[in-house]
Every structure is written in C-alpha cells, then in structure tokens.
Design brief:
The protein has about 375 residues and is an alpha/beta fold. About 40% of the residues lie in helices and about 15% in strands. It has 14 helices and 12 strands. The structure holds pyridoxal-5'-phosphate (PLP).
Length: about 375
C-alpha cells in the first residue's frame, strides 16, 4: 500500500508542473546565464522569468529578489547584512521564542559577537507577545526577525503594524515566511518588511533553492562573495533548473493561496484528523488550535505516549509524520517551540506534527488517524 505522507512541513513532493518545467534545464540546456552567447542568454531569460514569478507571489519588484541555496542561506544573509550595515549606536536584535533553528542559531551567533539578543515570548497558544516586542523596539535595535507561519504548530504570527513600528525605530524587519506560500496571501508591502526568506522545497518546488527578498534601497552587504551574479547580492553560478522550478512553484502557490475552497478542504481534513485523535485519546490536545493557524498543520499532544515511539510505530505501519522540526529530528531534546508555549518536558516530548498538502485525501486522513490511535493504544497496553 502507498505510504501516507503527512510531513509536508519538512518537505513537499515537487509538483508535476515543476518537474516538467525543470526537465529541459537539466536535460537540454546547460549554458551559464552569465555567458554572452545565445545559449547563455536563453538561461538568463529563464532566470529572469522565474524572478518575476517569485516577485508576483510576494508583491515585490523582480529586482528585489535574489536566489539562494535555500532559506537557511537566505536567513543567514539577512542577519549578516542587517548587522554589518547597522549604525554603531545599534546594539540589539529581537527574535521570538518560537523561531526555526535557522533564525535561532543566527541570533545565537549575534549574541556571541556582542549583540544583545532579546527573545520575545508567546502565550500558551503560540501567539507572540506583541506588547513586549513593541516595548523592546527602540533606537538601539538593529534587526527584528519573526516567523510568519510556525513550522511546528502552523500558528500565524500577527505582524500587523510591526513593520511600520520597526521602520519608525529604524530597525530592519526580517520575515521567515518559509511555511507560508500557498497557505496565506504574501505581500511585502503589507508586511512592510525589509527582508523575507523562502525555500522552494516547502511548497512543491525543488530542494536546494531559496529566495531572499531585500527591499529596494535597503542597505545590503552580501554574505557569499565571489562574482557579480544576482546583482552582486549573491555570488555563484545560478542553479537554473532549480530557479525555473521555484518560479513554477511560486505560480502554483499563488493560485492555491487565492483558492479559498481548496484551503478550506485542507483545513477540513486537518480538523477531522484532530477531532478523531482528540476524541479517541484521553488527555490529548491540539497545540495552537486556539490561535489563527495555516490550514494543513496539526500538532497534537497524544495524552502521555512518547512521540518518538509512536512515530516509529506509525512509520512501520505506513504513515510518515514528525515529532517537530525536521532540523531537530536527530535531537532527543523536547521541542523548544512547545516549551516556549509553556509545555513541560514530558508534554513537549509527547506531541506529533501532522502536515498536510493539497494532495492529502480523506481516506488517508482516516487511515492515518486509526494508525495513530492503534499505536498509542498498543503502547498504553505495554
Ligand atoms: N524556516 C522555517 C520556518 C522552516 O520550516 C525551515 C525548514 O524547515 C527553514 C527556515 C530552513 O529552510 P531550509 O532547510 O530549506 O534552508
């Protein structure tokens, strides 16, 4: 039987259209977009078209888009740039307590090099303490970095007005929007951000390609040096096939985010899974369910079973899910995101994340729910 894949926040399957768009650039064309001959110009045209597709997804100008190897590079570049171009009087960096490790580790590196890093907490549903953030935001702040859609819980950060507040304080705002494409409308003007990061494989594009948006005119210093590519913002010969695939994925994500019926179908399946688990498993709860969330993410406390054991058992039975961020999957430490939401270690170690896609079916959800319930009951009986 086909495996049931409920781990789309870790990575998604590339869409058929994405693979088809990429194939000619892997098989038939190989010229360097910087080469001044017709084959090189064809590659440069393909990169240009993809840049416009990314810009259309986030409401930016094409010239504000740089391609990177993924979101981790994009986030690292935003941090390095914002901190190296900030005025010397600025000493502070603000992040939230539910950031992905890509932001968290960059904030830790900043702290090691003398920056004061202020971490703003969230409530038990994962909602940012906006008041605390606004009271920390002053003229000593160089950078604020916030996740838009949480990778573990799906909870959406309310960024309303924060971009304007950052601008008034003269601080750069970076938005980690990696989990947002295809799920919510993305608009850099409304977000009023200076940097925004995306990663192709999180929304049915290829892995190994990402995006850094830098607002036009915003001070910028590249992290990767070596050549004039990407308007001197990111050196290195372009991954043309990856860029073409990413552009195609942006087009699909834009259509999906503008399709309320599809989004409510995904949400309905997520809710059905949650309701079935919560009804069957005593003492269970859905983390972040009281806050606005993206439609396809569910994070469930299973009522006392160790998530790692349940994960192994359902994996054997054909269901792929996750016990938190894939980047922390090899760690046995409880999820820092759930701990930040006030869960204790035992509870944070007893949660599973299910992340759906537009391809998830009702039959898969029903079979996955029964598989999880059977695994928890079997563990309970031991
Ligand atoms: N930010 C968030 C919210 C993520 O979910 C991820 C990946 O899990 C990243 C950043 C890093 O993306 P990548 O591994 O593609 O560089």
């Amino acid at each position: 039987m086909q495996r049931i894949y409920l781990d789309n926040n870790s990575t998604t399957r590339p869409a058929a259209e994405v693979v088809n768009a990429m194939l000619p650039w892997l098989r038939d064309h190989h010229a360097n977009p910087s080469s001044p001959h017709p084959s090189g110009e064809a590659s440069a045209d393909a990169v240009r078209a993809a840049r416009s597709q990314v810009a259309a997804l986030i409401g930016s100008q094409a010239s504000e888009i740089s391609f990177t190897s993924g979101a981790s590079e994009s986030i690292s570049t935003a941090f390095a740039s914002a901190l190296s171009t900030a005025d010397e009087s600025r000493t502070k960096v603000i992040v939230s307590s539910v950031e992905h490790s890509a932001v968290k580790y960059n904030a830790e590196r900043a702290a090691e090099t003398g920056w004061e890093v202020v971490t703003i907490g969230v409530d038990e549903e994962g909602r940012l303490d906006r008041g605390a953030l606004l009271s920390e935001l002053d003229e000593s702040c160089a950078l604020v970095s916030l996740i838009l859609a949480n990778n573990e819980t799906g909870v959406l950060t309310d960024l309303e007005g924060l971009g304007a507040a950052c601008r008034a304080a003269g601080a750069s705002l970076h938005v980690d929007a990696v989990q947002a494409p295809g799920k919510v409308d993305l608009d850099v003007a409304a977000l009023a951000c200076d940097f925004l990061s995306l990663s192709g494989h999180k929304f049915h594009g290829p892995a190994g390609i990402g995006v850094l948006f830098v607002r036009s005119g915003h001070p910028f210093r590249p992290l990767i040096l070596g050549g004039p590519q990407e308007s001197e913002r990111r050196a290195g010969t372009e991954n043309v096939a990856g860029i073409v695939g990413l552009g195609c994925a942006c087009q699909i994500a834009k259509q999906q985010a503008a399709n309320p019926e599809l989004l409510s179908t995904i949400e309905g399946l997520r809710n059905a899974l949650e309701q079935r688990l919560l009804a069957a498993l005593g003492n269970s709860r859905a983390n972040g369910a009281g806050a606005p969330r993206v439609p396809g993410t569910s994070n469930v406390y299973l009522g006392g079973s160790e998530a790692a054991f349940v994960l192994a058992m359902i994996g054997q039975a054909g269901v792929d899910a996750s016990a938190g961020s894939a980047c922390n999957a090899t760690s046995t430490a409880p999820s820092p995101v759930l701990m930040a939401m006030g869960r204790d270690e035992a509870e944070a170690s007893g949660c599973l994340r299910f992340s759906l896609s537009a391809h998830t079916t009702r039959d898969e959800i029903e079979r996955a729910a029964e598989t999880v319930i059977a695994a928890v009951e079997a563990l309970g009986a031991l």
